[in-house]
Amino acid sequence: MIERIDSPGFVTLGMGMDAWDADAFGNDTAADWLAEVVETSDLGMILEAFDTVLGAGDEPVELQAGEEAIAAAELVAWLAGQPGKGGDYSDAIESWMDDNELEFTESLAKKARRSIDRVFNMPSELREAWEEGEDFDDWKAELAKLKERLG
């Protein structure tokens, strides 16, 4: 089980979003979502996160959905053997992967890359929130690194 990490480095972005880092798990929503994922034994929550943002059509991707999709993409990168910063969550992620028969596929990576693109491109509440803060370039760079790790 993952305990949420309280960090003194919180940054309040636009739309009332709190983040402590631009990486995939550097916000409350992603940390809470990850805590739920590691209690499961399959990729269901990851696929659901992708389907939510990819199914938004012309509507804005909601803030929480965007944060969850980016976190889901990070887990796919871990499954591909290309982990990013897991920080205090690394052990929980590795245990989850070791304890379950989770299969990486190229189609999963493709869906992750498409989800990142959809969250980054407008309309997206998450992008708007990062644009309103001072760390938009850091977030943009983290997403580019994540896409690169996904192949």
Automatic annotation (TrEMBL):
UniProt superkingdom: Bacteria
Classification via Pfam families: DUF4259
Name of the protein this chain belongs to: DUF4259 domain-containing protein
Native source species: Haloferula chungangensis
